Amino acid sequence: MRAETRIRRQAQIEDAAYALLEEKGYAGATMQALARRAGASIETLYNWYGDKPGLFRALIARNAETVQEVLDQRAGAADAAALVAVGERLLALLTGPRAVALNRAAAADAEGTLGLALAQGGRDIVMPHVATLIGAITGAHGETPDRLAELWLALLVGDLQIRRVIGTIAAPDANTCRQRAETATDHLLRLYPPQG
Amino acid sequence: MRAETRIRRQAQIEDAAYALLEEKGYAGATMQALARRAGASIETLYNWYGDKPGLFRALIARNAETVQEVLDQRAGAADAAALVAVGERLLALLTGPRAVALNRAAAADAEGTLGLALAQGGRDIVMPHVATLIGAITGAHGETPDRLAELWLALLVGDLQIRRVIGTIAAPDANTCRQRAETATDHLLRLYPPQG
DNA sequence: ATATTTCCGTAATAAGTATTACGGATTCGG
DNA sequence: CCGAATCCGTAATACTTATTACGGAAATAT
């Protein structure tokens, strides 16, 4: 199979997996429905991903790449505007349909391996990046950059993510994301002004 | 069946349901395992709760009572200490094994009815209560008490709840809960001092 | 005490699902 | 253009589970 065709087929499988995850949940996303929807065969699913958890682990791995891309954008200046820009994109990503679907899958996995993989490809990448950026903005402080990053993320996301995961709210629109990013950054810098 | 016996049997069923939910997740919590573990019969489960979602809806309903009890404690003074006390209990409740299990069940329910019930018995009760308390502490402000309550809850809980639900952290201990409640209250009152 | 309801324990039903298997079509390397 | 590998579509396998059914025991009411 040509590499190009294979990549397209992989994208079809991932799209179908996300769609099923959003519509039916992890338990309801059956391999047969996935194969039919993706226009792939069941055999291919098992040959490529091993088993059902493996398929969703692959989704999580690719999600980690998306997280990296979001963080790498606007990596130039280390000022409040850069933090707002990162927050805006980050919030849209974290509350977007794909991240929410992955979190639901992780919540359904009682063993916790999916959750661990999701955290490694998400929070464990985001936190140091944000901490470095905030540290560069605020300078030396009584509070460590790590704690400031946690604070800023709490202000930014709030309970939007858990409410998205249990299905009580829709994804916030672009305006909401920007305003929350601005407010969170403003609150952080009011509590811990630069050069404190 | 005597009312007393029935109440005890209901508690056994609820305990078993929570235990299975924590160990196996919603899909893995089978009615047969639940009956065996609770010492009840399958027929009783269906006679009392209708079906499997109905059983977990009953769990959510009883959880709402617990939330009310937590909020009603220390309802006397309207000062920062009261807010810290409420926050401490609230965080312990929200990150405790039972609330986490219910959130996992809601996340596994793609239709969203469990999530809706959980929100109605949880957030929709907590938010107005906290907003009233904060409003009484801070007095009139540019920000509405509702927004301040959201801010305080974000500071209090952060991402602990979602991380608990996807299984990457253990429940915070009592010390952590108290410190977070103190820090969240301190941050809130620094950002929006009373009599602003 | 006895008739009636309720419950337990177990089995049966019916449906769904992860995983494996296979024949025929398609694609790829030479 | 041809053989080998890969893939699709479908079916078969083996297993699990929600829900219903039923006989006998326990409790309840009269």
Automatic annotation (TrEMBL), chains A, B:
Residues 7-67 form the HTH tetR-type domain. It holds the Pfam family TetR_C_7. Residues 30-49 bind DNA. It comes from the Bacteria. InterPro entries: Homeodomain-like_sf, HTH-type_TetR-like_transc_reg, HTH_TetR, TetR_C_Proteobacteria. Coiled coil: none annotated. One of its GO terms (molecular function) is transcription cis-regulatory region binding. Keywords: DNA-binding. This is TetR/AcrR family transcriptional regulator. It comes from Gemmobacter lutimaris.
